[in-house]
Structures are given as structure tokens and as C-alpha cells.
Amino acid sequence: MHCSPTLQVPDTADAWALERRLLAFCCALREHGYTVSIAEVLAAVTAAQCAGALDRTRCRVALRSALCRDRAQWRRFDPLFDAWFTGRADADSQDETAIQGVAPRSALAQASVHSPARQLAHASVTGGGAAVGDEALQSLDLGRVFDPRTLRDIDAWMDALTRRLKREVRRRHQRGGHARVRLSRTLRRAHGTGGEPFKLVHTKPQRRLPQLVVFVDVSQSMAAYSRFFLQFAKGLAGAFERCEVYGFDTELIALGDFVRPARTALPPAMQSVAWRGGTRIAHAVEAFMAEHANSVLNSRSRVLFLSDGYDTAPPEQLARQLARLRPRVKRVLWLHPLLAREHGAPLDPCLRMAAQSIDRIVPAHSLDALSDVFSEII
Amino acid sequence: MSHADPVDALHAALASTGYIADAELATCASLAQNLQKPLLLEGEAGVGKTGLAKALAEASGVELIRLQCYEGVDASAALYDWNYPRQLLAARHGSGGDATDATRGLFTEAYLLERPLLRAIRQPSESVLLIDEVDRADEEFEALLLELLSDFQVTVPEIGTLSARHRPRVILTSNGTRELSDALRRRCLYFFLDYPSFEHELSIVQARLPALDPALARQAVRVVQQLREENLSKLPGLAETLDWCAALFALGVTRLDAQPERVRSTLVCLLKTRADRQRLHDTDWDALFADSTGA
Questions:
Q1: Closest partner residue to B182 among A35, A65, A295, by Cβ?
Q2: Which own/partner contact pairs does A6-11 have at CB distance under 8 Å and 24+ positions apart?
Q3: Which of A354, B57, B186, B244 would be B64's cystine partner, CB 3.0–4.6 Å?
Q4: Is the distance from CB of B158 to CB of B76 less than 8 angstroms?
Q5: Is residue A306 part of a domain?
């Protein structure tokens, strides 16, 4: 039996009501981060009709198959479906706990009121002081910047760094390896000369850029630096075609959609992370390994942590999680904002214990230090 | 045996081939068939993604055309290529010294070599097209698939557009080692195939290995389910469970806790990395085997 692959027009009032509800559900999913275009709405409703819209189990399967695009959406779908079609009061909270990184937009907008950028902006207004020169700016400890003019200068410098990164990445990308003879193309070209391959056709293999995975610590202990680190991560995402950015405090939050190059300013959603108190780096890495590692990591990946390494969990947990991560990637770099400030003082016990799974721990307290990181990446 | 409901009919047909699908997967596969849309199956290795395509082909009595993807797969390996040696011979044979005459008529279907995608399109009867491990292919290759997946046609610049005579049932599988493009995903129905539940896995083992002692099968499946809760780098999939059960059967094991030494020698079927082997000690295994006897 074949269903019609096109939408059937409902013939009763109940059918109309059900279809309206299905349509509204499809649209509501957009608020939860699902990409649902008109074509997808039509496909979903057609699938539901085909599977039997009155059978809740089949309707769920049909809508889920038609509307989900990946594993994360797949896992979040059932609570949303239940909330919409059964009106269960706990569905929303289930969704909130199930969602790692994608919250409804309205919630993100509310959260931005308490964002680190807002607090930093407030601090900068009360901080006073004068702007500094270029050289001083680049060596300035970012955690001690309060002056509004200096903050603006740093923003401009970050934008310039992004542009410089893009140029450098493009230049290295174009610098390919040795050309190879393409036999099939050469033979094809030889048709025009009666089968004599007078001219060889070469291919120039493109150099593969490394993939970046960036973890930004946005917990309370990193409040002074997290704004700049998010900006830096945004710059990396703009320069590298394959760059995934995650924020973490007590939970891991995927920031992929919010660090795309089209955005020029930090969006509210990016500022909504943090300020929950506590840092669980090991937990964040564990969540990453469970949810994202398979699709994100490969043997060419470079992983960057921008954090002071303070973890509220026992130190061995971070060591264990990084030991799982390290064999799967090319390089793990830890960008530590307090390293220069502490003048060789002992690292946090968590970081010390995990050091054998980290290739390099480098200072990241200033613009100079951040720009030096680029040579470590490529 | 006839079934009025297409989902039940498909479920029964798959079961007749030894593939025990759960109700949701059967519904989704039936939808893909009825809506004539490709089905993208994502999940860990060894959970039965490729097996579904094979079972669908076997159940329907149609040919399975398989394209195994890998890094660097391109149109000449997946779609079509020209028979260059034959073209050169023809050019030399018929040229008479004029290169223009020599190349005329060389780019026709007579010199076209079909690769799996084109073969599926030009198949005179229904078929199942399996595009396996599409995440291993490059992003450029995904773009190549878009026309095929949306319109069931391919365009050969020298000839024109070739449309499917019979739309193949397309199954794409991915282990999630790379994010697939949104354009590819939105052309497919999506199903995430997770590790099976205890009851489901047991029913699969019993269907595939009917000679295996039911009590041993329960024990084995319970151990595998517990292993999936451990912090292993490579969790055992359904394929590993079946391999392990077959090994136990071949060695004449009747109870896991009664012959632990012999059972431990078969664990190569379950754990595929050195780190995982070292993570669990003999005492851990003995505890697992003992626990598996519980109700």
C-alpha cells in the first residue's frame, strides 16, 4: 500500500482540528531550536496522516522522523511531543533538563539580564580610568580592564584579530601539497588528440585545515575573562570553517549557532551562560564525550580549553575525562588566564592531575598571549 | 499471511528474514517506503543499520545495491565513469586522422560505466539502495547525492538527466563521526537507532540463534546490557552480542558462571580495544557473570 506523498485535505471538522494542532506543533518546535520550514511542515503532516494521525505512537514516530535532524533533537522530541499533545505539566521541565545548550529563545532572552556582559558593562561604568596605548593594550591583563574606552579598544582589536586569522587560514589553506596526475582526466583530454596524452591533467590536493573544538569556562571564577574568551572563540569560529564552541559552568552548553561569523556583536544567547555558581569541567567534558564527541572529533582535531582549571569535582575526575579525550584528537591546549599572573605558582590540583593529557598549558591573560595561541593551533 | 496494516506487514516481513525491528523502526521504515523518501539511520556501530537495508531487500525479494562510502569517494566511484580504454580504441579505430570525427559519438551511453547510484536509478525493477556510512564521505559528495535523494534522478552533463525507472528505496547510514549537512538531512526521514532494550535484544538473539539455550541467552544479553553501562571506549553493539552468543554456543558453554575461564576466552567478541580489556579485571567479570543469573 502506498500513501499519497502529498498532503491530503481533511474532510471532517475533527480532522481539520487535528491538522491545525499538528501544524501549530510543527511551528512551536521552532521555538525549541528545530529548523522547520514550510516544506518540513508539509512533509511532517503528510507523514503523520500516512502513519495514522489518530494513533499517538505512530503519529509521534512519523513527526519525529520528519522533523528531527540529529540525535540531540531526537532525544528532546518526546518530552515536547508529550507536552503539546497530552499537556503534561512536567514536560517543560523535562525539556529544560534534557536540553543541553538549546533553550527556548524567550528563556535565553530573559537570562541575558544577568549576563556576564551586562555585569561587566556595569563594572566598566563604575571603573573609570583612561584608555591605554597599543602596546600597553596588548600586554594588559584582561581581567583587570574596567575602563569603557579600553573595552572598546579591545573589541576593535578582537575584530582585527578575527580578520587576521581569516587571512592566515585562507593563505595556509591555499598552500596545497604536491600535484598529482589525474589519469582519468588525462585520458579524457587525450580523445581530442587521437588518444595521445600530450597534456597531463594534475589535481592539487587542498590542505586540510584542522578542526577546532573550543571550551570556554564561563563560571563565576572566570567572570573577569569569560567575555573576552567568548569573543576570542567567536573569532576562531569565524576563521576556521570547522570550529565548534562550547561554554560550561556547571553544565555544557553548545554555542555553535551563536558564534557564526555573520554576527558582529555578542548575541544575548551567548551572554546568558554562566552565573549559576560552581564549575564542573569534568562533567562538561563527560557530557561532551557522550553527546558530541562522535560527530565532532577526529584525529586532526585541536581542542582548546579557556579556563583556570578550577573544578568543584574531585581532581581525578577531570584527569579521567581528559584521558578519554586525548587519544581521539591531535592536540589539547589549555589556555590559562592566571598563569602569568601567578608567576609560576602551582596549578590548580585538578589541572595538575590532568596535565599528562594536555599537550601545553599556555598563558591567556592578554591580547598578546591570545594571538600567540594561533601558532599553537596550526 | 496477509496484513491489512502496512506497518504490521513490514514488521512481519522483516521478522521472516531474521531482522527483529521494534515497532517504531518498522513504522518509520514503512513511512519511508510509502512516502518514497530516503531513510537516514544514525546510531552507534553494530546496532543494525546496515542490517535493515539487507533485510528490506531480502523481504521484498529485490536487489540490494550498496555503495560503501569512504573519504575521497567521488562521482566516478559512486555515480558513473566513462570507459576510457574503449573510447580510445574507438577513437583510434574510426578517426582516419581527423580528431573531430574521432571524438564524435564517444560520450554516449555505450561508453558509460554504471556505478552503484546510477545502477540503482536505471534498474528495470525495484531495488534497495544502501548508501553506507555516508558520514565517512566528504562534504562535496553529499552535494552529489542531493539531486538523487530529492528527485531520484542524476544528471550526466554529456548525456542529460537520467530519471529513475523505478524509485529505489534508499537507506543511508551514519555512525555520526561527522555532522551531515542540513540539506542532506532534510531530504530524508531520520531515525536514531539506539542500543536495543533487554527484551528486544533477547528476542533478536533468540531469533538469530534458535539453538542457543534460552537461559544462557538471557545471561549473555544481561551481561552485554551491563557492559553498556560501563565506561568503555567502544561499547558492544548488537553485532557483538550475536558474535559472542555464537562463540558461546560453539564452545558448548551452558552457563556463564559455571565456566568463567572458558567464557573469558570469548570476550574478544565483545571488547575490541586493549584499554577496554584492561579496564575490567577477572573479578569484575566473575561478578558480572554471577549477577547475570538473577531474575
A1: A35
A2: A6/A46, A7/A42, A7/A45, A7/A46, A7/A49, A8/A46, A8/A49
A3: B57
A4: no
A5: yes
Chain B residues in contact with A357 (beta carbon < 8 A): none
With CA atoms as reference, the chain B residue closest to A46 would be B35
In this structure, what CATH number is given to the domain that contains residue A238? 3.40.50.410
Read off the pLDDT of residues A273-285 as tens digits, 9 standing for 90 and up. 444 557 789 999 9
* A122 and A58 co-located in one domain: no
Residue type, B85: P
Residues A147 and A183 in one domain: no
Residues contacting residue A80 through CB under 8 Å, at least 6 positions apart: A28, A29, A32, A91, A95
Mean pLDDT split into 10-residue runs, chain B, 295 residues = 75 92 93 93 91 95 95 89 86 65 76 93 93 90 90 89 91 87 91 93 92 92 90 87 94 86 88 83 81 70
Strands (E) located in chain A: 180-181, 202-203, 212-217, 243-248, 252-254, 302-306, 331-336, 360-363
Residues of A near B (CB-CB distance < 8 A)? 1-3, 5, 35, 37, 39-40, 43, 46-47, 50-51, 57-58, 61-62, 64-66, 68-71, 74-75, 184, 187-188, 190-195, 294-296, 298, 324
Smallest CA-to-CA distance from B254 within B243, B241, B265, B245 is with: B245
Considering the domain architecture, whether residues A273 and A225 belong to the same structural domain is answered as yes
Whether residue A217 contacts residue A281, with contact meaning beta carbons closer than 8 Å, is answered with: yes
Select from A76, A99, A122 the last residue of a domain: A99
In a domain, A274, yes or no: yes
A contacts of B99 (beta carbons < 8 Å): 192-194
Beta partners for residue A187, in sequence order: none
C-alpha cell of residue A116: 556576564
DSSP state of A96: H
pLDDT in tens, A322-344: 998 998 888 999 998 887 765 55
pTM, two decimals, is: 0.65
